[in-house]
């Protein structure tokens, strides 16, 4: 792989930028691989990357029915934070957040990680108590967060209106090293590194069946023919129930569309990320100046992957109360992505009833922030059969009632 550097840019400037190679190869499928990962979103690509980097497993194919990063990874609002309540969540999200800190250097790809700080607004007394509890839990977990009062919120977000009629701002949970990253770049950076290790990324290739023999996986049926494998990782977010169905088991997951929109670009006015979970809206300003606004999920299960007008109206109406200035903005784009939601709002990283088949899903509305930590832990689980990062997130927890309840930290927001 040709390294990206200031020197490389200068060299290419002198030859009309004709020397840049393709970032990743476009191979034809081999007959079989040691490991197949289905889904070239952030989680699938990160899993493949850490299989190669941490365990030397490089005879790997990542199979994607569309284009890499074209699922939720390329549709999310890119909020990164690790202020969850339960210990297993704090461990995996904080691992992910810390890997984001050095991701650009590790991948030699600028993922534009911007640790600008994230505030989760407390707009009811219940939320004040909930976030104070989270701040205490985070202190014990080694995750740096603090509960701040309304004056400090105003200092950090001058455009905020503290005294809204329905939901005044009573404080907030502040994580100074939370922030955002460029979502496509995360997928592209991992893809380039995987391709460089000799892995095959097979785009426009849909998995249509899982082939098993004596209760163990032997391969997959795809639109490009049958491909053999010894281990199979299903990392397809909102489509995980379909894949599980192909392998003959069910998952406790619901798929729904989650909504987002961006405004026209404006001058810099807000340099932190603000989440208002009571009114189901959150906002950050992109480097281009657009206000990136996330909303809630559609109220019914679906796979439509497009924006819904009533939701956008609801989200913006609620946010205008806390940010009156956005009432004068024009909306530029809206969209939706199909997210995979579990009952306890925590992910599933697990072995399955089929030997050799592993599943990584259930990240719901908040899995972008987890990509590197999830990839790290899931690769370890696939390579060694156990990972301390994923141990609590097995499918067994639904049978045994060991839920990891993150409905306060995750809710419908991120
Ligand atoms: C609007 C919106 C806003 C969000 N905001 C945030 C946020 O601010 N912060 C945050 O942390 N998270 C956020 N999320 C959640 C986050 O985007 C997801 O949790 C995360 O991107 C999931 O990544 P993934 O790799 O598991 O799935 P995906 O990126 O969806 O990748 C799965 C891939 O599998 C492929 N696939 C499916 N079926 C098949 C098949 N049969 N064969 C081959 N390939 C298949 C799909 O085409 C897709 O590319 C948001 C999501 C949405 C939709």
Could you please describe the fold and organization of this structure?
The protein has 414 residues and is of the alpha/beta class. The chain has 2 domains: 26-79 and 85-94 and 183-252 and 344-400, FAD/NAD(P)-binding domain (3-Layer(bba) Sandwich), CATH 3.50.50; 113-179 and 254-342, D-Amino Acid Oxidase, Chain A, domain 2. The chain contains 11 helices and 18 strands. The strands form 3 sheets. Strands 1, 2, 8, 9, 10, 11, 17 and 18 form an 8-stranded mixed sheet that branches. The chain has an 8-stranded mixed sheet with strand order 5-6-4-13-14-15-12-16, sandwiched between helices. Helix 2 (42-55) links the parallel strand 1 (32-38) and strand 2 (60-63). Helix 2 packs parallel to helix 7 and helix 2 (42-55) crosses helix 10. The protein is globular, with a radius of gyration of 21 Å. The mean pLDDT is 95.
Features:
single chain; 414 residues; alpha/beta; FAD/NAD(P)-binding domain; D-Amino Acid Oxidase, Chain A, domain 2; 8-stranded mixed sheet; 11 helices; globular; binds flavin-adenine dinucleotide
Low-pLDDT ranges? none
Q: List the secondary-structure elements in sequence, H or E.
A: HEHEEHHEHEHEEHEEEEHEEEEHEEEHH
Helix/strand/pairing class, anyone?
alpha/beta
Shape: globular
Strand content: 25-35%
CATH level-1 class of the largest domain: Alpha Beta
Total domain units: 2
Percentage of residues in helical conformation: 25-40%
Q: What value does the average pLDDT take? A: 95
Number of helices: 11
Distance between the termini: 35 Å
- Per CATH, the superfamily of the largest domain is FAD/NAD(P)-binding domain
Ligands present: flavin-adenine dinucleotide
């Amino acid at each position: 792989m040709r390294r990206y550097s200031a020197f490389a840019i200068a060299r290419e400037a002198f030859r009309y930028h004709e020397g840049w190679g393709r970032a990743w190869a476009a191979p034809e499928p081999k007959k079989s691989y040691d490991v197949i990962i289905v889904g070239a979103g952030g989680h699938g690509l990160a899993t493949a990357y850490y299989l190669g980097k941490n365990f030397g497993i490089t005879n790997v194919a990542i199979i994607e029915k569309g284009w890499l990063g074209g699922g939720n990874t390329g549709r999310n609002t890119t909020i990164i934070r690790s202020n969850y309540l339960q210990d297993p969540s704090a461990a995996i999200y904080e691992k992910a957040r810390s890997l984001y800190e050095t991701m650009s250097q590790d991948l030699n790809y600028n993922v534009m990680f911007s640790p600008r700080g994230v505030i989760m607004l407390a707009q009811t007394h219940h939320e004040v108590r909930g976030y104070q509890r989270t701040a205490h839990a985070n202190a014990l977990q080694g995750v740096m967060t603090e509960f701040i009062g309304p004056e400090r919120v105003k200092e950090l977000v001058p455009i905020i209106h503290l005294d809204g009629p329905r939901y005044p701002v009573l404080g907030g949970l502040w994580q100074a090293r939370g922030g955002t990253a460029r979502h496509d770049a995360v997928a592209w950076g991992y893809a380039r590194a995987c391709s460089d290790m000799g892995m095959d990324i097979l785009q426009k290739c849909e998995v249509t069946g899982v082939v098993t023999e004596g209760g163990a996986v032997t391969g997959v049926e795809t639109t490009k023919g049958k491909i053999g494998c010894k281990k199979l990782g299903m990392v397809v977010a909102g489509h995980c129930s379909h894949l599980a169905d192909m392998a003959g088991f069910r998952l406790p997951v619901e798929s729904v569309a989650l909504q987002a929109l961006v405004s026209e670009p404006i001058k810099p006015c807000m340099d932190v990320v603000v989440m208002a979970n009571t009114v189901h809206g959150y906002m950050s300003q992109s480097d281009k100046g657009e206000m990136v606004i996330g909303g809630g999920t559609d109220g019914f299960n679906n796979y439509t992957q497009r924006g819904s007008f009533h939701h956008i109206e609801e989200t913006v109406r609620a946010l205008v109360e806390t940010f009156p200035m956005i009432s004068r903005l024009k909306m530029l784009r809206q969209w939706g992505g199909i997210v995979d939601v579990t009952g306890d709002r925590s992910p599933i990283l697990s072995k399955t009833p089929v030997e050799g088949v592993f599943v990584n899903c259930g990240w719901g509305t908040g899995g972008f922030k987890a990509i590197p930590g999830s990839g790290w832990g899931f690769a370890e689980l696939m390579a060694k059969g156990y990972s301390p990062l994923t141990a609590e997130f097995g499918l067994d927890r639904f049978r045994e009632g060991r839920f990891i309840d993150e409905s306060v930290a995750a809710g419908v927001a991120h």
